[in-house]
From TrEMBL:
Transmembrane segments: none annotated. It comes from Halomonas heilongjiangensis. The keyword Cytoplasm does not apply. GO terms for cellular component: cytoplasm. Gene3D superfamilies: NADP-dependent oxidoreductase domain. This is Aldo/keto reductase. Keywords: Oxidoreductase. Signal peptide: none annotated. PANTHER family: AFLATOXIN B1 ALDEHYDE REDUCTASE, ALDO-KETO REDUCTASE YAKC [NADP(+)]. The keyword Oxidoreductase applies. Residues 16-307 form the NADP-dependent oxidoreductase domain.
Amino acid sequence: MSTVFARLKEVASPSIGLGCMNLSHAYGSPVPEPEALRALDQAFDMGYRHFDTATLYGKTANERLVGKALAGRRDQVLLASKCGMAFDPELGRKAIDGRPETLRRQCEASLARLGTDHLDLYYLHRLDRRVPIEESVGALGRLVEEGKIRAVGLSEVSAATLRRARVERPIAAVQSEYSLWTRNPEIALIEACREADTALVAFSPLGRGFLTGTITEVESLEAKDIRRNMPRFSAENLPRNLRQLEAVRAVAAELEATPAQLALAWLRAQGDDVIPIPGSRSVAHMRENLAAEELSLEAATVTRLNAMMTPEQVAGERYSEALQGEIDTEEFA
Protein backbone atom coordinates (compact mmCIF):
# COMPACT_ATOMS: atom_id res chain seq x y z
CA MET A 1 0.00 0.00 0.00
CA SER A 2 1.40 3.39 -0.97
CA THR A 3 2.51 5.55 1.95
CA VAL A 4 -0.14 8.23 1.57
CA PHE A 5 -2.97 5.70 1.96
CA ALA A 6 -1.15 3.73 4.63
CA ARG A 7 -1.15 6.92 6.74
CA LEU A 8 -4.88 7.26 6.18
CA LYS A 9 -5.52 3.70 7.39
CA GLU A 10 -3.58 4.43 10.57
CA VAL A 11 -6.38 6.73 11.69
CA ALA A 12 -8.99 4.00 11.06
CA SER A 13 -10.56 5.83 8.16
CA PRO A 14 -12.87 4.01 5.76
CA SER A 15 -11.45 2.47 2.61
CA ILE A 16 -14.14 4.27 0.59
CA GLY A 17 -13.47 7.90 -0.31
CA LEU A 18 -15.75 10.66 -1.54
CA GLY A 19 -15.57 12.06 -5.05
CA CYS A 20 -16.75 15.66 -4.77
CA MET A 21 -17.12 16.44 -8.48
CA ASN A 22 -20.86 15.73 -8.68
CA LEU A 23 -21.67 18.65 -6.42
CA SER A 24 -20.31 21.19 -8.92
CA HIS A 25 -19.68 19.60 -12.27
CA ALA A 26 -20.75 17.30 -15.10
CA TYR A 27 -24.03 15.84 -13.86
CA GLY A 28 -26.47 18.69 -14.42
CA SER A 29 -26.79 21.94 -12.52
CA PRO A 30 -24.42 22.54 -9.58
CA VAL A 31 -25.87 21.94 -6.14
CA PRO A 32 -26.53 25.31 -4.41
CA GLU A 33 -23.58 26.09 -2.13
CA PRO A 34 -25.44 26.01 1.23
CA GLU A 35 -26.87 22.59 0.37
CA ALA A 36 -23.51 21.32 -0.90
CA LEU A 37 -21.73 22.50 2.24
CA ARG A 38 -24.30 20.71 4.41
CA ALA A 39 -23.76 17.54 2.39
CA LEU A 40 -19.98 17.66 2.82
CA ASP A 41 -20.37 18.44 6.52
CA GLN A 42 -22.57 15.39 6.95
CA ALA A 43 -20.17 13.29 4.88
CA PHE A 44 -17.40 14.12 7.34
CA ASP A 45 -19.66 13.38 10.30
CA MET A 46 -20.66 9.98 8.91
CA GLY A 47 -16.99 9.02 8.53
CA TYR A 48 -15.59 10.03 5.14
CA ARG A 49 -11.95 11.10 5.43
CA HIS A 50 -10.70 10.95 1.83
CA PHE A 51 -12.01 13.88 -0.25
CA ASP A 52 -11.23 14.17 -3.96
CA THR A 53 -11.60 17.33 -6.07
CA ALA A 54 -9.87 19.00 -9.07
CA THR A 55 -9.06 22.34 -10.62
CA LEU A 56 -11.42 21.52 -13.50
CA TYR A 57 -14.55 20.79 -11.47
CA GLY A 58 -17.03 23.63 -11.66
CA LYS A 59 -14.31 25.82 -13.20
CA THR A 60 -12.53 25.83 -9.78
CA ALA A 61 -15.78 26.20 -7.77
CA ASN A 62 -15.51 22.67 -6.39
CA GLU A 63 -12.14 23.35 -4.79
CA ARG A 64 -13.50 26.47 -3.11
CA LEU A 65 -16.49 24.48 -1.88
CA VAL A 66 -14.35 21.67 -0.47
CA GLY A 67 -12.02 24.20 1.14
CA LYS A 68 -14.90 25.84 2.96
CA ALA A 69 -16.35 22.50 4.04
CA LEU A 70 -13.07 21.21 5.48
CA ALA A 71 -11.98 24.43 7.19
CA GLY A 72 -10.84 23.52 10.70
CA ARG A 73 -10.67 19.80 9.81
CA ARG A 74 -7.73 19.82 7.44
CA ASP A 75 -5.47 17.67 9.61
CA GLN A 76 -8.17 14.99 9.87
CA VAL A 77 -8.54 14.22 6.17
CA LEU A 78 -6.69 13.07 3.10
CA LEU A 79 -7.21 15.85 0.57
CA ALA A 80 -6.60 15.16 -3.11
CA SER A 81 -6.85 17.45 -6.11
CA LYS A 82 -5.74 17.45 -9.74
CA CYS A 83 -3.93 19.65 -12.22
CA GLY A 84 -3.16 19.67 -15.90
CA MET A 85 -6.73 19.99 -17.10
CA ALA A 86 -8.67 23.19 -16.45
CA PHE A 87 -11.23 25.52 -17.95
CA ASP A 88 -9.45 28.10 -20.09
CA PRO A 89 -11.49 31.34 -20.17
CA GLU A 90 -9.63 32.58 -23.24
CA LEU A 91 -10.51 29.46 -25.20
CA GLY A 92 -13.94 29.14 -23.63
CA ARG A 93 -13.38 25.44 -22.97
CA LYS A 94 -11.25 23.05 -20.96
CA ALA A 95 -7.63 22.62 -21.94
CA ILE A 96 -5.06 19.92 -21.17
CA ASP A 97 -1.69 21.43 -20.27
CA GLY A 98 1.05 19.43 -18.59
CA ARG A 99 3.84 21.99 -18.81
CA PRO A 100 5.77 22.38 -15.55
CA GLU A 101 5.01 26.11 -15.23
CA THR A 102 1.28 25.42 -15.66
CA LEU A 103 1.24 22.67 -13.04
CA ARG A 104 3.03 24.88 -10.51
CA ARG A 105 0.64 27.77 -11.14
CA GLN A 106 -2.40 25.54 -10.83
CA CYS A 107 -1.10 23.94 -7.65
CA GLU A 108 -0.54 27.28 -5.94
CA ALA A 109 -4.01 28.45 -7.00
CA SER A 110 -5.54 25.21 -5.70
CA LEU A 111 -3.86 25.61 -2.33
CA ALA A 112 -5.32 29.10 -2.03
CA ARG A 113 -8.83 27.95 -2.98
CA LEU A 114 -8.67 24.98 -0.62
CA GLY A 115 -7.29 27.08 2.24
CA THR A 116 -4.36 24.80 2.93
CA ASP A 117 -0.57 24.86 2.68
CA HIS A 118 -0.32 21.37 1.19
CA LEU A 119 -2.21 18.66 -0.66
CA ASP A 120 -1.86 15.06 0.49
CA LEU A 121 -2.17 13.79 -3.07
CA TYR A 122 -1.96 15.75 -6.31
CA TYR A 123 -2.79 14.09 -9.60
CA LEU A 124 -1.89 14.97 -13.15
CA HIS A 125 -5.50 14.93 -14.36
CA ARG A 126 -4.69 13.98 -17.95
CA LEU A 127 -1.56 13.18 -19.90
CA ASP A 128 -0.55 16.06 -22.16
CA ARG A 129 0.77 14.28 -25.24
CA ARG A 130 2.80 17.36 -26.16
CA VAL A 131 4.81 17.16 -22.92
CA PRO A 132 6.88 14.11 -21.93
CA ILE A 133 5.38 12.51 -18.84
CA GLU A 134 8.80 12.74 -17.20
CA GLU A 135 8.67 16.55 -17.40
CA SER A 136 5.20 16.77 -15.87
CA VAL A 137 6.02 14.31 -13.10
CA GLY A 138 9.35 16.02 -12.47
CA ALA A 139 7.50 19.28 -11.88
CA LEU A 140 5.17 17.57 -9.41
CA GLY A 141 8.20 16.06 -7.71
CA ARG A 142 9.61 19.52 -7.14
CA LEU A 143 6.33 20.50 -5.47
CA VAL A 144 6.80 17.52 -3.15
CA GLU A 145 10.29 18.74 -2.27
CA GLU A 146 8.86 22.16 -1.47
CA GLY A 147 6.19 20.68 0.81
CA LYS A 148 3.28 21.87 -1.32
CA ILE A 149 2.16 18.33 -2.03
CA ARG A 150 2.87 15.13 -0.16
CA ALA A 151 2.51 12.62 -3.00
CA VAL A 152 2.19 12.46 -6.78
CA GLY A 153 -0.67 10.79 -8.63
CA LEU A 154 -1.70 10.24 -12.24
CA SER A 155 -5.16 9.94 -13.76
CA GLU A 156 -6.44 7.94 -16.75
CA VAL A 157 -3.00 6.75 -17.85
CA SER A 158 -1.79 3.49 -19.30
CA ALA A 159 0.53 0.97 -17.68
CA ALA A 160 3.30 2.10 -20.05
CA THR A 161 2.93 5.73 -18.98
CA LEU A 162 2.95 4.75 -15.31
CA ARG A 163 6.16 2.79 -15.81
CA ARG A 164 7.83 5.77 -17.46
CA ALA A 165 6.58 8.15 -14.78
CA ARG A 166 7.75 6.12 -11.81
CA VAL A 167 11.32 6.19 -13.05
CA GLU A 168 11.18 9.94 -12.49
CA ARG A 169 9.26 9.91 -9.19
CA PRO A 170 7.34 7.43 -7.00
CA ILE A 171 3.66 7.47 -7.96
CA ALA A 172 1.37 7.07 -4.94
CA ALA A 173 -1.84 6.51 -6.87
CA VAL A 174 -3.33 6.19 -10.30
CA GLN A 175 -6.94 7.25 -10.64
CA SER A 176 -8.87 5.40 -13.31
CA GLU A 177 -12.46 4.52 -14.07
CA TYR A 178 -13.06 1.05 -12.64
CA SER A 179 -16.32 -0.70 -11.90
CA LEU A 180 -18.31 -3.81 -12.68
CA TRP A 181 -19.02 -2.42 -16.15
CA THR A 182 -15.65 -0.76 -16.78
CA ARG A 183 -12.87 -3.31 -16.41
CA ASN A 184 -10.16 -1.52 -18.39
CA PRO A 185 -7.64 -1.39 -15.48
CA GLU A 186 -7.61 -5.20 -15.56
CA ILE A 187 -5.94 -5.18 -19.00
CA ALA A 188 -2.56 -4.01 -17.66
CA LEU A 189 -2.85 -1.11 -15.21
CA ILE A 190 -3.52 -3.06 -12.01
CA GLU A 191 -0.45 -5.19 -12.59
CA ALA A 192 1.68 -2.10 -13.24
CA CYS A 193 0.34 -0.42 -10.11
CA ARG A 194 1.22 -3.42 -7.99
CA GLU A 195 4.72 -3.53 -9.45
CA ALA A 196 5.18 0.05 -8.28
CA ASP A 197 3.35 -0.15 -4.90
CA THR A 198 0.86 2.33 -6.36
CA ALA A 199 -2.76 2.44 -5.23
CA LEU A 200 -5.51 2.28 -7.84
CA VAL A 201 -8.17 4.86 -7.00
CA ALA A 202 -11.38 3.88 -8.76
CA PHE A 203 -13.48 6.80 -9.92
CA SER A 204 -17.04 6.29 -11.16
CA PRO A 205 -17.15 2.97 -9.23
CA LEU A 206 -20.93 2.97 -9.64
CA GLY A 207 -20.77 3.33 -13.40
CA ARG A 208 -21.72 7.02 -13.34
CA GLY A 209 -24.87 6.04 -11.48
CA PHE A 210 -25.85 3.22 -13.83
CA LEU A 211 -24.97 0.45 -11.36
CA THR A 212 -27.34 1.91 -8.75
CA GLY A 213 -30.25 0.89 -10.96
CA THR A 214 -31.83 4.32 -10.71
CA ILE A 215 -31.16 5.47 -14.29
CA THR A 216 -33.73 3.80 -16.51
CA GLU A 217 -33.98 6.29 -19.38
CA VAL A 218 -31.65 8.95 -20.71
CA GLU A 219 -34.52 11.48 -20.78
CA SER A 220 -34.44 11.53 -16.97
CA LEU A 221 -31.03 13.22 -17.03
CA GLU A 222 -30.69 17.00 -17.07
CA ALA A 223 -29.97 18.63 -20.42
CA LYS A 224 -26.42 19.55 -19.32
CA ASP A 225 -25.62 16.10 -17.94
CA ILE A 226 -22.51 14.70 -19.66
CA ARG A 227 -23.98 11.20 -19.63
CA ARG A 228 -26.38 12.23 -22.37
CA ASN A 229 -23.40 12.17 -24.75
CA MET A 230 -21.89 8.94 -23.45
CA PRO A 231 -22.55 5.95 -25.72
CA ARG A 232 -23.52 3.54 -22.93
CA PHE A 233 -26.40 5.83 -21.92
CA SER A 234 -27.78 6.27 -25.44
CA ALA A 235 -31.40 5.41 -26.20
CA GLU A 236 -30.12 2.38 -28.12
CA ASN A 237 -27.60 1.05 -25.59
CA LEU A 238 -29.13 1.85 -22.21
CA PRO A 239 -31.99 -0.70 -22.44
CA ARG A 240 -29.50 -3.41 -23.44
CA ASN A 241 -27.28 -2.53 -20.48
CA LEU A 242 -30.22 -2.48 -18.09
CA ARG A 243 -31.00 -6.05 -19.07
CA GLN A 244 -27.43 -7.00 -18.14
CA LEU A 245 -27.84 -5.25 -14.80
CA GLU A 246 -30.71 -7.51 -13.76
CA ALA A 247 -28.33 -10.29 -12.75
CA VAL A 248 -26.37 -7.87 -10.53
CA ARG A 249 -29.59 -6.66 -8.91
CA ALA A 250 -30.55 -10.27 -8.18
CA VAL A 251 -27.28 -10.92 -6.33
CA ALA A 252 -27.76 -7.72 -4.34
CA ALA A 253 -31.24 -8.85 -3.32
CA GLU A 254 -29.87 -12.21 -2.18
CA LEU A 255 -27.40 -10.40 0.08
CA GLU A 256 -29.98 -7.85 1.30
CA ALA A 257 -27.80 -5.08 -0.07
CA THR A 258 -28.39 -2.36 -2.60
CA PRO A 259 -26.87 -2.68 -6.10
CA ALA A 260 -24.59 0.25 -5.27
CA GLN A 261 -23.30 -1.45 -2.13
CA LEU A 262 -22.70 -4.67 -4.04
CA ALA A 263 -20.74 -2.82 -6.76
CA LEU A 264 -18.54 -1.14 -4.15
CA ALA A 265 -18.03 -4.38 -2.23
CA TRP A 266 -16.95 -6.07 -5.48
CA LEU A 267 -14.31 -3.36 -6.01
CA ARG A 268 -13.06 -3.65 -2.43
CA ALA A 269 -12.73 -7.41 -2.98
CA GLN A 270 -10.21 -6.74 -5.76
CA GLY A 271 -7.61 -5.82 -3.12
CA ASP A 272 -6.76 -3.38 -0.36
CA ASP A 273 -4.90 -1.30 -2.92
CA VAL A 274 -8.11 -0.60 -4.88
CA ILE A 275 -9.83 2.42 -3.36
CA PRO A 276 -13.27 3.45 -4.63
CA ILE A 277 -14.31 7.10 -4.51
CA PRO A 278 -18.02 7.19 -5.34
CA GLY A 279 -19.48 10.64 -5.77
CA SER A 280 -23.00 11.70 -4.95
CA ARG A 281 -25.18 14.78 -4.71
CA SER A 282 -27.32 13.04 -2.07
CA VAL A 283 -26.50 12.62 1.64
CA ALA A 284 -28.63 9.47 1.71
CA HIS A 285 -26.59 7.96 -1.11
CA MET A 286 -23.33 8.98 0.58
CA ARG A 287 -24.48 7.07 3.66
CA GLU A 288 -25.60 4.09 1.57
CA ASN A 289 -22.24 3.96 -0.19
CA LEU A 290 -20.22 4.16 3.01
CA ALA A 291 -22.24 1.27 4.44
CA ALA A 292 -20.69 -0.94 1.76
CA GLU A 293 -17.70 -1.09 4.14
CA GLU A 294 -19.72 -3.64 6.11
CA LEU A 295 -20.44 -5.89 3.12
CA SER A 296 -17.85 -8.63 2.69
CA LEU A 297 -18.26 -10.89 -0.32
CA GLU A 298 -17.46 -14.59 -0.40
CA ALA A 299 -15.10 -15.73 -3.12
CA ALA A 300 -17.91 -17.54 -4.91
CA THR A 301 -19.94 -14.34 -5.08
CA VAL A 302 -16.99 -12.40 -6.50
CA THR A 303 -16.56 -15.10 -9.14
CA ARG A 304 -20.26 -14.83 -10.07
CA LEU A 305 -20.00 -11.06 -10.38
CA ASN A 306 -16.80 -11.31 -12.43
CA ALA A 307 -18.84 -13.03 -15.14
CA MET A 308 -21.44 -10.25 -15.25
CA MET A 309 -21.23 -6.91 -17.10
CA THR A 310 -18.07 -8.03 -18.88
CA PRO A 311 -16.67 -5.93 -21.75
CA GLU A 312 -18.29 -8.08 -24.41
CA GLN A 313 -21.66 -7.87 -22.63
CA VAL A 314 -21.74 -4.09 -22.16
CA ALA A 315 -23.23 -2.09 -25.02
CA GLY A 316 -21.39 1.07 -26.05
CA GLU A 317 -18.02 2.67 -25.42
CA ARG A 318 -17.49 4.47 -22.12
CA TYR A 319 -16.57 7.81 -23.74
CA SER A 320 -17.55 9.75 -26.81
CA GLU A 321 -14.91 9.94 -29.53
CA ALA A 322 -13.86 13.43 -28.40
CA LEU A 323 -13.41 12.43 -24.75
CA GLN A 324 -11.71 9.19 -25.72
CA GLY A 325 -9.03 11.25 -27.40
CA GLU A 326 -8.15 12.87 -24.07
CA ILE A 327 -7.21 9.69 -22.21
CA ASP A 328 -4.25 7.33 -22.29
CA THR A 329 -5.78 4.14 -20.87
CA GLU A 330 -5.73 0.69 -22.45
CA GLU A 331 -8.88 -0.29 -24.31
CA PHE A 332 -10.44 -3.67 -24.98
CA ALA A 333 -10.31 -4.78 -28.60
